[in-house]
Structure formats: C-alpha cells, structure tokens
Amino acid sequence: MESSRRKFLHQAGTGLGALSLAAVGGVAPVAAASRNAGARRNDGPGGLPKNWRAMRKFDVHNHISIASAPRPNVDWSRAENLIEAARQLGIEKLCSSHPVTAGALVGIEVVRAANDSVLAAMKRYPGTVLGQCFVQPGNGAAALDEIERCLDAGMIGVKLYNQFRFSDPAVFPIAEKCIQHGIPFLGHSAHLTDPKTLAQQPKTSDSHDFCALSRRYPELLLILGHINGGGDWEWAIKGLRDCPNVYVDTSGSVLEAPTIEMCVRELGHRRVLFATDTTMEGCVGKILSADLTSEQREDIFWRNLQRIFDRRRA
Questions:
Q1: Measured in whole angstroms, how far is the alpha carbon of residue 89 from the centre of its chain?
Q2: pLDDT digit string, tens, across residues 163-198
Q3: Dihedrals phi, psi of 132, to nearest 5 degrees
Q4: Domain span at residue 271?
Q5: Fewest CB atoms within 10 Å of the CB: 11, 29, 68, 172?
Q6: Is the peptide bond before 169 cis (omega within 30 degrees of 0)?
Q7: Given this model, what pLDDT does residue 21 score?
Q8: Where are the beta strands (DSSP E) in 118-232?
Q9: Which of 172, 182, 128 is nearest to 151 (CA)?
C-alpha cells in the first residue's frame, strides 16, 4: 500500500507544469496532476481507480489568500493556481479561510480584513470557494458579530487557529454561535512533543482539548484539523476514540504513514473528512491509496461533509 501511495505521488508530480510550490506562496506542495495522468492506471495490487479524477471531492480545510501591493491592485495569481490545482485533481469545493496566525491577539479590524479577502474569493469563484469565518475568541462580542456578518455574506462555517485552547471558556461563546446556526467549527490542532515547538505554540489544542469542548457541547459540529499536520498523529487519533461527536480532517503533509486506515479503524469512516490544507495532490493520494471500500472512499471524499452541510439552520 505504501508503494501504491508513492507511485501516485510520483505520477501526479511529474506533470506539474507551472503549478509549483512557489506559485502558491510556498505553503505546501499544491501542484496538480497532468491531464494525462488520470488516464494512466496502476494495474498492480492496490492500483488506483481509473476514474479517480471524476470522483466528487469536497475539501473541508483549505486556505485562499490574495496578495496586494497595495490594494486595490489585487494579485490573484496564487488563488488562480490553487483553483487550477483543485480543478485538475477533481476537487469540486474548497472550504477556505484566511486565519491570522500571529500569536498575540489582533484587533477585530485585522480579522475583518482577512475575512473580506475570503469573501472576495467567494465572489470570484462562486460554488467552488466556500468561506470559513476566522475569528479570535479574545475579541469577545466583536468576534460573535463577525461570525454573523460572514454568515450573512454566505460563509458556511467557522475556523479558529491556536490563539486559545479549545477547552478554554473563552471559546464557549464561539461554539454556542456555531450550534445556533448548525455550522461546522474547524480548529487548528496538533499533539506537540518537541519542547521548542511547545514553547512557541503553547495554546495549540490537541484531541483532549477537542474532546473537552465536545463533551460540553455534544451537538457541536466540531472538526479536528489536519490530523497529519504535525505532532503525534497516532496519539491524536486514539484521543478521539471516546469522543464520538468530533470529526477529523485528513489534511497535512505527512503522506507515508497509514493514517487514513487508522482513522477509519479507530473512529469509523463517517467521522473522517477529506481535506488538504493546500497539500493538494498528496492528500488526494492518501485517500485513493488507502485500504477503503468504494462507499467509504466516497463518504470521506464528500458525503460526510455534505451531511454536515445539511444540518445548517437559518
């Protein structure tokens, strides 16, 4: 199975053309497979499905940014490359946010500007870019007002970064707002083990923080972000076994480990959501090469997220 995954990534990567790491701002490998790559098939054990590109795919965790120097001279080149990568990989929808990653609390005007860039992308790519409203719990009532503003403008969920642990009471009003509207709450996560990284990111939430929030609000549509985004992913998965209301997204740049199979085995495939966090081709490859039934693969690629969308309230 690991051989199959490596072969997919090699085949996808050889036809990248201009969709390079530099073209998307250096976040992660976003380049897409060539048009002809979809026609090839690995006929050996664990071969890729011939129609992999045509399979529906909803990416629950992505980021879209607009470079400007300064506005209104907006540079859409990185966003265009992201959209083209998604098109070539058959990713139909990109749930996207623009989080402010500064460790210190920033003013609500900075948060609002970040969300405005996502709203602009939603208008430019209607039906493809689905906005997630980034907020900081430390902004208090202004954060709740920002969620309402973003939802009124068409966004579909909320994204939090690592400024507050999700077991912190400051997060509770955000969770309650998400429950009120029946929208998903996606959170940055990692079980960090390196002392230096821990010191730099002391408020990063791990699966125990997600479980604490989920036990307080069992009706919350809570998604643990990028299970392969850093830290001890096996520990993180095991930490979710007793929290049946927490979903996990499959994004992150760790590609070689059998993470998908472990998620399905420990949590059940209905709790697993396809995502890339801009590691586009690798994260498609993880799902295609995982040991899944056709129904499980389809659920992970899009149906599980559609079920979450169907719970939206006015």
A1: 16
A2: 888 999 999 999 999 999 999 999 998 877 777 876
A3: -115, 130
A4: 51-309
A5: 68
A6: no
A7: 30
A8: 129-134, 157-160, 185-187, 222-224
A9: 182
